[in-house]
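Methods, example record. To illustrate the input and output format used throughout this study, we show the complete record for ATP-binding Cassette (ABC) Superfamily. The sequence lines were provided to the predictor; the line carrying structure tokens was produced by it.
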Amino acid sequence: MARTSTKYAAVAASAPAASDVHPYDEAGWFARTLYLWATPLLQVGNDRQLDPTDLWPLQLDNTCAVVSRIFEPKFRATRSVVKTILSTYGWRFFLIGLLQVGSVLCTLYGPVVLRHVLEAMEAEDAGFDLSRVLYYVFSLFAVKVLQAVVAAHATFDNQVIMVKITSALQHLLFQKALVLDATCRRDKTAGEIANLFSSDIQWIINFSIFLNQLWLIPVQVVVILFMLYDVIGWATFAGAGVIVVTMVVNNVIARAQRAAFKEVMTRKDARMNVINEVFGAMQILKLNVWEEKFGDKITTFREAELTTLWKVWRLQSSVTFLLYTAPALVTTVSFAVYTLVMQQSLTSAKVFTALSLFTLLKYPMIGLPQIFATMMQAVVA
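The corresponding predicted structure is encoded as:
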């Protein structure tokens, strides 16, 4: 009797059908540049509610099997999540950083155009140069279109990397959870493992999205301050002093936030341990009528966790208040020094140009502390 063998395959060996191919893979360079390959799905969503069958298949490069095949060997070699992410996707982060630099430069072109247009309108001797003004206006339009395309590609690539990192980390956690021995299972309860999947991984992913902002935002602040110096001179350093004071205060709050985040994680793990203990011994708990006893125990842990969460939100409220008042303080101090100390007059071109630059300065000042808070949560996780 001939011996027969059975071969099991999780994925069909045949090539995928045309309908199973992601539209991005078949799109040309022009469609990829302007995301025209997404138009059919947008049209369907505009006509009716989307169904799961309307969604595209996942690209092969973004599947967990392919991602883990690349990510896992590097993690085994380094035993560091950060080093593995940087060695695997570092070049992608670098390209995204270049795109984000281009988007920032396009943003800074607006105040330049505003200054030149207002100066052309204020020029009485030379007269109003219409051709020059039209040149700046149309160039601003072109730059803004370019910025929209560049920012869209940076965001899209960031989201793709986020999907890959999520798949890789969850794959590692699943693999680790399946091979835990009895000793490790006593040390790591099901509640702690569930926390790793639900919250800890998310903090790491959130920080990886903002990785380029750690160096891009300080560079953006320096460039904006240099442009302000060209407009209002030494008064810029008075505003920079306010920024430094704000950063010092924010650093103190960030350290307090890190300690609070650690306390939240500890209390959350303790509460989840009790909850898993209850679900794991539900029959014994019912037979001995211990519902109220364990209910009070869970409530006690939850109240302690809520107290710590309230502390975290108080710190976050302090950061928010500081960040939204700091730009107004920077503007007020800079204009006060320029007019009262330097005895200079403010023209329309200087006022509106400086205000537009101060507005641009507000966003990195708001974003940087939030990124530091996310980094602290990722470190704790």
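Annotations derived from this record:
DSSP finds 13 helices and no strands in the chain.
The CA atoms of residues 106 and 144 lie 7 Å apart.
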